[in-house]
């Protein structure tokens, strides 16, 4: 009987300690939509008295949204685990605050964390009193998180003040995270010892609207939408009537406008991009021997670099590969247009009177140094230093008013 009661108590204890694990993937920029997604996921995990696991891979995000996510995690009685995964992922800038705020932090091998220093609208350190104020505020935010979770205070602060970045192994040795593990199964095995055995594992999926928002929160995607929109509208003006390019351009620009409501933009960067396109168009009409094109490339390059660099955006930027690719495409298009313009300039006119130079005609009558020549279904008055007979073949050498000068055709 005692053995049976002990078995029942052990069974009840094991069931009480069992947990359902809810996994959520957080990829890309941290935004307001990310905050809502995590909040909804945390509610589901709380209602099931389970554990929420955030699989994180982010370059950074909006600081205001990051603060709200950190508040959700710090106030949550439901365990929140951040897993910087897969291998090669990163918890950059805003992701650093989320990882350190979690009840349990794990990273996969090859991942990294850190570089959480605030910047100004040009992507550089903020100078002067304003810079000190913003940096001190961000440092205090990081210190409060580190103190709450018992993380390495000195290293945590250096991630803000010195943009320190650590590998997974360095973060583990510095007491920034709790473990290094490479798989969901391996993580659950470790968590089971802390929070209870796994009874079920649920992978939560975002709604369609959230998926669209996450897609548009990628700076590289927004950059492509802007260039596709401008390019398509330009093609519609060059080839009007089909409305295909107009439709594509309008859709791309609308998606870009939706995106900049998710990630705020630096209007100086956007102005530089439009200035770059204006210089490209001017190059077509104003011969500048490449100076306008050079100005366009510089304006576009700096515009793309600065487009998402503004206060409140942490670690958000267009990749250097995307910038280089776009500039290469611009130079290719300008080069092709320039070649066509030069070719057209060097070719002889195909229409009008000047287009007749070099054409062959037939002598209808000739007297001395002048006569009548039949060319392109028309009879022209002709002059020449040579003498011709009727039906001789001649070639037009010059046109003066309504008189053509001809020479013997070879």
**Residue share in β-strands:** 15-25%
CATH topology of the largest domain: 2-enoyl-CoA Hydratase, Chain A, domain 1
CATH homology group of the largest domain? 2-enoyl-CoA Hydratase, Chain A, domain 1
Q: What coarse outline follows from CA principal-axis ratios?
A: elongated
SSE arrangement, N to C: HEHEEHEEHEEHHEHEHEHHHHHEHEEEEE
Number of helices: 14
Annotated CATH architecture of the largest domain: Alpha-Beta Complex
Which consecutive residue ranges, at least 5 long each, have pLDDT under 50?
A: 1-16, 120-128
Keywords: Membrane, Transmembrane, Transmembrane helix
Domain NfeD-like C-terminal: 353-408
Transmembrane segments: 212-235, 242-260, 289-308, 314-338
InterPro entries: ClpP/crotonase-like_dom_sf (IPR029045), Membrane_assoc_protease (IPR052165), NA-bd_OB-fold (IPR012340), NfeD-like_C (IPR002810), NfeD1b_N (IPR056738), NfeD_membrane (IPR056739)
């Amino acid at each position: 009987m005692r053995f049976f009661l002990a078995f029942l108590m052990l069974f009840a204890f094991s069931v009480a300690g069992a947990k359902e694990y809810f996994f959520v993937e957080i990829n890309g920029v941290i935004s307001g939509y990310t905050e809502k997604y995590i909040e909804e996921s945390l509610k589901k995990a709380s209602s099931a008295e389970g554990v929420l696991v955030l699989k994180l891979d982010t370059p950074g995000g909006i600081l205001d949204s990051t603060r709200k996510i950190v508040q959700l995690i710090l106030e949550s009685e439901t365990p929140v685990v951040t897993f910087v995964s897969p291998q090669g992922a990163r918890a950059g800038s805003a992701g650093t605050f989320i990882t350190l705020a979690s009840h349990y932090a794990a990273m996969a091998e090859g991942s990294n964390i850190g570089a959480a220093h605030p910047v100004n609208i040009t992507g550089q350190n903020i100078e002067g009193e304003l810079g000190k104020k913003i940096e001190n505020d961000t440092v205090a935010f990081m210190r409060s998180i580190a103190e709450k979770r018992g993380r390495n205070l000195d290293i945590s602060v250096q991630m803000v003040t010195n943009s320190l970045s650590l590998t997974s192994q360095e973060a583990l040795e510095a007491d920034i995270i709790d473990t290094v593990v490479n798989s969901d199964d391996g993580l659950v095995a470790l968590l089971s010892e802390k929070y209870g055995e796994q009874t079920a594992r649920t992978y939560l999926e975002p709604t369609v609207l959230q998926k669209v928002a996450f897609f548009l929160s990628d700076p590289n995607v927004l950059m492509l939408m802007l260039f596709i929109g401008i390019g398509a509208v330009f093609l519609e003006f060059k080839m009007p009537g089909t409305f295909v390019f107009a439709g594509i351009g309008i859709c791309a620009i609308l998606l870009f406008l939706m995106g900049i409501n998710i990630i705020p933009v630096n209007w100086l960067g956007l102005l530089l991009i439009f200035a770059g396109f204006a210089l490209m168009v001017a190059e077509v009409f104003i011969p500048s021997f490449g100076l306008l094109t050079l100005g366009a490339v510089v304006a576009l390059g700096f515009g793309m670099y600065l487009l998402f660099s503004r206060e409140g955006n942490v670690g958000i930027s267009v990749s250097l590969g995307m910038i280089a690719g776009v500039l290469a495409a611009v130079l290719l298009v300008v080069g092709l247009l320039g070649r066509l313009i030069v070719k057209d300039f060097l070719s002889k006119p195909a229409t009008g009177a000047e287009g007749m130079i070099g054409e062959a005609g037939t002598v209808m009558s000739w007297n001395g140094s002048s006569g009548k020549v039949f060319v392109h279904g028309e009879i022209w008055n002709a002059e020449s230093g040579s003498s011709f007979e009727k039906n001789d073949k001649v070639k037009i050498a010059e046109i003066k008013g309504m008189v053509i000068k001809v020479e013997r055709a070879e």
